[in-house]
Design a protein that fits this description.
This protein is of the alpha+beta class. It contains six helices and seven strands; from the N terminus they run E-H-H-H-H-E-E-H-E-E-H-E-E. The chain is globular.
Length: 194
């Protein structure tokens, strides 16, 4: 049974300024293993960071469609989901399910996260499908919203509870703004969406 689907595409150019980020800043989003892989080839650094960021966004969207009551913010989720590679090179997700289920009303039903990544020189895309065995009571988590798939870069705030930690919220908003918006030349605090 499919519990959630998430897809995210990002323009790799938006990550150009990530070259100025320290490893400490990048570790707020990526694991040490992800950074080691991304940073080992300078020419592929930005596309590798971008596609991993897209994977985390896609997972967040898939998880949010399965557990919309979950109060875990995107930035917190980033540290709980990591992209790794099988020996033959195929990517997969390492997920801290214990933390996710702790923040969700759903029972710890075994869930598998399927991941597909692709990128060109300009665009990185990730697709995540959450799958599990059919529930014993044959209920569908999408019974009210059978076609609910979150696939935009904008979330409906009414689906999620407010974060209690204001500082964390501001940091997340700032990071998202840096990725998806650019400051026009000569503008003080105005931003324009890409």
């Amino acid at each position: 049974m499919i519990y959630g689907i998430g897809i995210d595409s990002v323009d790799i150019k938006r990550f150009n300024h990530w070259n100025t980020y320290s490893e400490v800043q990048l570790k707020r989003i990526f694991s040490s293993q992800e950074l080691a892989y991304c940073l080992k080839e300078e020419s592929k650094k930005l596309e590798r960071l971008a596609v991993r960021f897209a994977a985390k966004e896609a997972f967040y969207k898939a998880w949010s469609s399965y557990a919309p009551e979950c109060t875990l913010s995107f930035m917190n989720l980033c540290t709980k989901v990591h992209v790794a590679h099988h020996a033959h090179g195929a990517p997969y997700l390492i997920v801290d399910w214990n933390i996710l289920f702790k923040n969700s009303k759903h029972a710890s039903t075994p869930i598998r996260a399927h991941l597909s990544l692709t990128h060109t020189k300009s665009t990185a895309t990730a697709l995540v499908v959450l799958e599990g065995d059919e529930k014993e009571d044959n209920s569908n988590p999408f019974s009210e919203h059978s076609s609910h798939i979150v696939s935009d870069n904008v979330y409906d705030d009414s689906l999620y509870e407010e974060d209690e930690d204001q500082e964390e919220e501001e940091e997340e908003a700032e990071l998202i703004q840096e990725i998806y918006f650019v400051k026009p030349k000569g503008a003080n605090n105005a931003y324009t969406r890409h």
